[in-house]
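We both want to read discrete structure tokens more fluently, so let's practise on a single case. Would you supply a protein for us yourself, any chain you care to pick? Would you write everything just below, so we can both look at the same thing?
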Amino acid sequence: MNLFLFTWNAFLYGRKVKILNDIEFNINTVSDPSSLFDDDVLAIVKNMEKEIEEHKKITK
């Protein structure tokens, strides 16, 4: 069970880092301010943060 949780946590963290890197890449390459923070991407990141917080509560 611990191995599953560890893997899941690593998976969630990896997804979050990947999306944040994509956002950073967009900020560095796109000059149009309206496309920097897409609502969909922001919602995905917020959902991931919630998932990680819930996971931390479960593992304590």
Observations:
- Helices lie at 2-29, 39-59.
- The mean pLDDT is 73.
